[in-house]
Amino acid sequence: MRDIVGKRNWYFALSLALTIPGIIFILLGPLTGGQAGLQFSIDYTGGTKWEIRFDDVSVTPDQVKAVLAAEGYGDSTVQTTANDFLLIRTEPIGFVDTLALSSPSPAPSAGASAAPSGSPAPSGSAAPSGTPAPSASAGTSPAPSGSAAPTPVVATPGPSFPASLPPASFVPPTPAPPGQVTRTGEIGVLAAALEDELGPIESQRQLTTIGPVISAELTQQAMILVLIGSIGILLWMTFRFRDFRFGATALVALLHDVIVVVGAFAILGTLFGLEVDGLFVTAMLTIIGFSVHDTIVVYDRIRENRSRHAGERFSSIVNHSILQTVARSINTSLVVTLALLALFLFGGDSIRPFILALLIGIISGTYSSIFNAAPLLTVWEEWEARRKERANPGRPVRRASA
Amino acid sequence: MRRFTPALILVVLGAALIINFWPNLTLPGMGPEGESRVVETKLGLDLVGGLQVEYQALPAGGKSPDAAAMATTKQIVENRVNSTGVVEPIVQTQGSDRIVVELPGVNDPDPIRKLLGQTGRLDFIPLPVERYGSGANPGPNAAAQGQPLPTEEVPLFSGDQVDQAFASTDSNGARAVGFRLKSEGGQLFGDYTTNNVGNFFAIVLDGFVVSAPVIQSAITGGEGIITGGTGGFSATEMNNLITVLSYGSLPYPLQEIGFQTIGATLAGFSLDRIILAGLIAIALIFVFMLVYYRLPGLVACLALMYYALVVLAIFRLIPVTLTVAGIAGFVLSMGMAVDANVLIFERMKEELRGGKSLPAAMEAGFNRAWNSILDSNVSSLITASILYVFGSPTIRGFALVLIIGILVSMFTAITVTRTMLRYIVPKEWARKPRLYGLSEEEFVGARGRVVVRGEARSRA
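^ inputs. structure came back:
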């Protein structure tokens, strides 16, 4: 029979070997100002992601970058993606500033507003609304008529009403044919500049802009969610097993998985530019919820065996329980891993980092449940037993003074 | 209770089949406005293409937006969205001060973004005769359309007092805009107009003059029309003014904080890929279960198909909007659903090896595994609920898929599998060790109880 609990220190060492490089790479992030360590996507940093394809597919990222730099977006990256598309990343551009939106549009009688309020006699043309004469149709009867034909009582003297509104603001936009390049706003200007230099843009795959407000929150939110999730699991395990140690060791195994995944992303980010995106926190919490499954199964078996084989050494009960459940732990993880692998290979680029995080997390979760959580429980149990023994070696009377 | 389980399973299956495959099934009174809703699978923006914009309501007048103000804002934004004719828009509030708008199929986002984010603070401002003169005798200042008022004036009331704005005609039959005020605004307007016939009055949106008509008569009934000069309004002018009057006034200004447009080509591509990947993933799960667990594995696969049908039906009913991540979550939840079966079957094998008869081993497998299944599902529910409560819309979609999946899997992986096995296990043909992935020796318990004749032995 394999002795997993007996060799636990080897497995703890392996876990350290897995987590320490990750931690180092995570810490490299703040130390190098983001050059190394975790690479955050625009979901976290704010910015614009714009994926387009030129008619001329031989346009290189460098050419695009040069045009962007000339337009004032020097700090941008351009890379080729599938099917000759180019993915441009820059600082956030193309926001509609809703507060400045109502900026004065050319109005017919613009001169009027320029008249200082003290000026006693404005010229005729600057008279209110240009045309002082109210519309001829204005009725005079104050008697309210039926709701179908309300009394006409006020008249709009000015001729061109929509001039007061931001252009196009209330015109129902006709949905453009899919894939067309955004032609308006800052992006439109940029598109025109690119086309001047590099020829027509054939299609646009996606355009995403994320402002600093969202991104600042996201990092904080991610940490808080992982924290709440961990506490939730700790409380639930403690409640179900009526033992804080079960909750606490399950939590340690969880944090192990979290560190392994974040560390793996820090390493892969440093080496290959793999980014942490908005779904990462989802992956983390899913891992937290799922990887504890294996731990629960082992702990359930420990609880069962403990009542059945009372008197046996705890470490041997734990070892037995691990071995009894190991087939199940590996099999379920295998099923999920197979499914995730299919999603990873064929599911498309948008969720690949997300699936990768889940894959790493679930494999790590299985390992930590078998080789960390339950063995840690043994360590704790034995440590407490030793402490009790030291405190009152066979003489319960002295307990109070100890 | 047990007697009714098979019936319950069949009824649920029947309902799921109807919901999934009945063409043009409509639910009366289930739409957002109590209208009928066609049951269909809703796909997210990343799978159909379109525009998503996220707004933050900014504090105004030293006050932060409260829940009621956000509800109003959402309503106004919804009205504006609906006025554009975009099909199936989604407007959601998020957190304490966010509005997220999703518009499938819209590829050129700028005009619509301008429309949606407009602060639209509408004020009705009297223009005092000392400063602006009267219609017949204009004063030193003029309210010019599209310009701010040259002097600071106190609004009489705001756009929230507009009860209704509608298309109307003036006495010449030209287009005009009719409006009805609420009682407070109507009272104020009545008092003011009675004393100021012939003077100017301004309708100001976001500090810029929309219209500065002359008061032709006292408007005491709270109802009147705005005429459009000699020729009346053009149709567009009229509709614009109606929109401004109806939906103009947001309680707090909105600031755009993020947007995303996804081309339909990319969306279609993503849809094809994720469906292919999902099918491959499911096929892999099936193969694994069949190869490793044989007969119970087959039962688990049937239960899994049942699971998929029920979950899809629930998605269509609620409806849950499926994104790429959501479909990934669905596939993941199938893996979790299998988890319960693996747990049960492993336990069953163990009990068989321990000498129990087949039916007894099966029951023990289900009973003993129950605790672990419940505990692990609850732990997944805890984290999924956290995601659902605190996450962004994309994350919430994923979390909802996971939550539904976990709850349904408790039913299918346990009740459905158990009912099927209870039906199968007593059958003579089902008593072969190979069907359970066990050797003849390990099957001793089953052989001891059940009359297995020499043929089984000789085969081994």
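The longest helix of chain B spans residues 264-317. Chain B has 13 helices and 16 strands.
thumbs up if we can close this ticket
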